[in-house]
User: Fold these one by one.
Assistant:
Number 1:
Amino acid sequence: MDAELNMKYAHIVGWGSFWPDKILTNDDIANIVDTSDDWIFARTGIRERRIAGEGETTATLAFEAAARALVVAGLHPSQLDMIIVATSTPEYIFPSTASRVQDYLGAARAGAFDLSAACSGFVYALNMAAQAIATGSIRNAVVIGSETMSRVLDWEDRGTCILFGDGAGAVVLRGSSIPGGVMASELRSDGSGGDLLRLPAVYHNPVPALGPEYLGNGHKHNTIAMDGRQVFRFATRVLYQSILNVLKKADLNIDDVALFVPHQANVRIIQHVAKKLKVPMEKFYLNVERAGNTSAASIPMALCDAIEDGRLRPDDNVVFIGFGGGLTWAASVVKWDVTPPEVTRLDREWKRTRYIVARGRSKVRRWGRRMEAYLTGSPTPDARLRDAEKEKKLPPS
Ligand code: COA
């Protein structure tokens, strides 16, 4: 077969993560709600988490992680065919976070979409991109998990606000004729447990003329609600079975796995699963102590830390396992086959100049649209939105 047509193995060839600067410790949270560092650490293994700062959004975090992953992969953004952002905290339902990242990167040939599967989202997205590569429909993809969880937390609810943090992680997948890469996946959902962990997405615009039952969606406005005990029980049950299932699909045994990179929600959940599998805890990579639960971003962020810690070698089998709202859960087995390249600071900085060019190009396009509107005598999109707001057709943005 033509080598070009046989690039069906989706290898991870680049990775990158982005941690916002601002650190929020358990002691800081104890100043907000009735809790303590001891309680949080004992129940979850979390000591601190990052909080996105002014000007940082789910899209900018995702862009930073993707840009770093592209440097490692040695790929130009114009070589990307697909950008998937797994997130539960997009700034917009549309445009998607992925489309904004596509614009920031200047990835002119890439399709882009967001994927919603809560904390399992990264593993789902990895599988979608790997399948697209396997069928030959694309060659290169960037898969990102990015979240600004701090903006959807109820900071009066000590059952949830202690758990989550912000951040982003990304991997670049590249089609190759060499066997390896993403070898098997299992994606699952049980929607009957949807109410156990939920984040209402759309604030229902009141329609007063239709009566009180049309006045809202009955939820506290756009914050996470969770039944912690039930979620804990669900996670320990499904993770164990999912790991066994995906290994069976890849024709591997538990002893063939060099490293498990689980969703970083809670150390006690991982301890439970490790014990059930009779696998030493050292085989589970953990950074939840410093990151908190960053939802869809947690697995790629942990993967980047594991690589930096020298925990992955060529030919290692690594298992990713996610679980979360939906309920959803997912596992993937990846044959690791890349030796981390040396990336110099100069290289990184030089490559960043291309994003300045991309920003310029995007601005020129926007100006072009405005100019066209001016020349044809039609109002610009901005002016149309302003007029609609004035006429109260839209809520103020
Ligand atoms: N600080 C201090 N006390 C707290 C507290 C906090 N942040 N949150 C709850 N408590 C109290 C409760 O009020 C309760 O007190 P009571 O016994 O006097 O009524 C007690 O601690 C036990 O509460 P409970 O909710 O049963 O605690 P728990 O042992 O189940 O721990 C979680 C709570 C959230 C840490 C735990 O359920 C958990 O981690 N679940 C999984 C959540 C998760 O991972 N979600 C994301 C999945 S992607």
Note: Residues 345-375 form the longest helix (31 residues).
Number 2:
Amino acid sequence: MKRLKDSFDRTINYMRISITDRCNLRCIYCMPAEGLIPIEHKEILSYEEILRILRVAVNLGLRKIRITGGEPLVRKNVTYLIASIKKIAGIEDLSLTTNGVLLEQFAEGLINAGIDRVNISLDSLRPDRYREITRGGDIDTVLNGIEAAERAGLSPIKINMVPIRRLNDDEIEEFAKITMKAPYQVRFIEFMPFGTDTWSQDKFISADEIKSIVENIGPLTPVNMKKSGPARYFKFDGAVGVIGFISPLSNHFCMECNRLRLTADGKLRPCLFSETEIDLKPALRSGAPDEEIERLIKLSIEAKPEGHTIPQDTHFRKQIKNKKVYRRPMSKIGG
Ligand code: SAM
Ligand code: SF4
């Protein structure tokens, strides 16, 4: 089996693909209130272009794919893309991250198309607060979506929550308690400084602090999970679900990083926290052979930095102070 190694001997076998920068929500930690200027349709990669990149990348050793966005379920014919990816020999794991708003409508179709798993983002269980965080979302649509996903057999259901101080941190325990009765993976993800000026150090809650809040409920036992990725998993005694903590800032997992990101407009991004991007579109649209796509994929792997040093980085601190954060918000990178 082919393996693609980067300059630091990490095997790169995972790609997150943002298929659209558009979204049916406008979460306050992800997008500015006025929304974002959408990428022009002609600049967005077609499904055929995405599939071509994937065929080349699978030949190089890619095995795992996550479809994300923006909100991936708002792009037309998303199930066609999923079914087509599933047919590429060599893909071992195909998942999708969604805000869940359209999941009730799509759960069956996703299963039929061959999706392995979905991650659902949910940052509050309170209707008013959910509406405030998402700037207008209706929590019932997401809860119905989660139920539909479970009925359709999409398991395990992963729920991702981003705790933000004074916004939703008083719900951390409530989210953790879900795992007592439901076989879900509830994962807490540190708030990251992307694209909007919402982030500040005082709103940031480290994974260690989140874990200590969860431990107010009861002791946690570590759980060894296959394919755990960057999450550290734990469980309450007698619980049917598990709790994950993901700490991209406080305790980054760069040495285990196995991923590349492909933006909706065709840029390969070697690291979430680096502005380096390698544009595949000119090659795709000028009739370049697969060898050229292959060369660009290898180039982006070579460009993977060893790691980021964000909490210690003085340049970054200055940026935060000046309210300048990463140019691309998560909705345009693909979280
Ligand atoms: N729209 C889909 C969703 O919300 O799940 C997929 C795209 S969204 C950009 C992917 C993930 O990025 C979500 O789980 C969201 O919570 C997370 N995200 C967005 N902005 C973030 C930030 N500033 N810090 C941490 N996570 C963030
Ligand atoms: Fe949309 Fe997801 Fe960003 Fe929320 S986090 S605005 S749902 S892309």
Note: Residues 162 and 189 are 5 Å apart (CA to CA).
